[in-house]
From TrEMBL:
The keyword Hydrolase does not apply. It comes from Aliiruegeria haliotis. SUPFAM superfamilies: Homeodomain-like. Gene3D superfamilies: Homeodomain-like (1.10.10.60). One of its GO terms (molecular function) is DNA-binding transcription factor activity. PROSITE patterns: HTH_ARAC_FAMILY_1, HTH_ARAC_FAMILY_2. It comes from the Bacteria. Keywords: DNA-binding, Transcription, Transcription regulation. This is AraC family transcriptional regulator. InterPro entries: AraC_lig, AraC_XylS_family_regulators, Homeodomain-like_sf, HTH_AraC, HTH_AraC-typ_CS, Tscrpt_reg_AraC-type_HTH. Residues 147-244 form the HTH araC/xylS-type domain.
Length: 253
């Protein structure tokens, strides 16, 4: 069966991490009501506040999305709420985190960070599967048709995609695909593809890749055209992002 994963490429391209934080700084909070019933998870781009101030705080963490250009970070609503009722797997995960917090041992900070990253994936997965977000990338990933074109863009950014190609991935006519993509994601497929490519390009440049090689890798016709598009998006030239590095076999080949 063909593998179809809406999150792995996004998570892998950015160093997403989480650490414990004061509640006033936390962007990921897990609560349990004083009655000890099912709790809730709260996630946002900025510090979040639980709906019930009397609830017990099981976890308060701050998520680092690996940079403000991460499409998942940009797609976050002001507040995302995940009800833990019926989600036994996430409840068990929170129990493991709680144990590490209450009884710290060697490596507890690392364990808490890793488990919180898993928790983050479970929240995003649940929101996508439930279709809880109405617009933006998460809304697009929630759509059974659009998600296939979006994942194709994420997995193959170097491919010379046309609107017709992406419409076929979604199983839609070109006109219907363009209309639906704009309505759900909030931008055209071409604009999203360009933004994704430039975001990946900025990462490659920061690792020392050459401008010419990066431009070619992500489907730009010339380094000059790439440089103009890059400056429009980031307000700086590609060369200013590049860090020198030792030549690799790929660079000299």
């Amino acid at each position: 069966m063909e593998r179809f994963d809406r999150l792995t490429t996004l998570m892998a391209r950015f160093r997403v991490s989480a650490r414990l934080a004061p509640l006033s700084e936390a962007t990921l909070v897990a609560t349990r009501p004083a009655t000890h019933g099912p709790g809730k998870l709260y996630l946002g781009a900025h510090p979040v506040a639980p709906e019930d101030p009397e609830s017990d705080i099981l976890l308060a963490a701050r998520v680092d999305w690996g940079g403000a250009a991460n499409p998942l970070f940009l797609a976050l609503p002001d507040l995302m709420v995940h009800d833990l009722a019926g989600d036994e797997g996430t409840v068990q995960l929170l129990s493991l985190i709680d144990t590490e917090i209450r009884s710290p041992r060697c490596g507890s900070e690392t364990v808490i960070g890793r488990l919180t990253e898993v928790l983050l994936v479970r929240i995003l997965r649940g929101q996508i599967e439930a279709g809880s977000v109405e617009s933006g990338l998460l809304a697009g990933l929630s759509d059974a048709r659009l998600s296939r074109s979006i994942v194709a863009i994420h997995d193959q950014p170097e491919r010379l995609w046309t609107s017709d190609d992406l419409a076929r991935e979604a199983g839609l006519s070109r006109s219907r695909f363009m209309e639906l993509f704009q309505a759900r994601v909030g931008e055209t497929p071409a604009a999203y593809l360009r933004r994704w490519r430039l975001t990946l390009a900025s990462q490659d440049l920061a690792l020392g890749a050459r401008v010419e090689r990066v431009a070619h890798r992500y489907g730009f016709r010339s380094p000059e055209g790439f440089s103009k598009a890059f400056k429009r998006q980031f307000g700086r030239s590609p060369i200013s992002m590049r860090k020198p590095q030792r030549p690799t076999l790929q660079d000299v080949s």
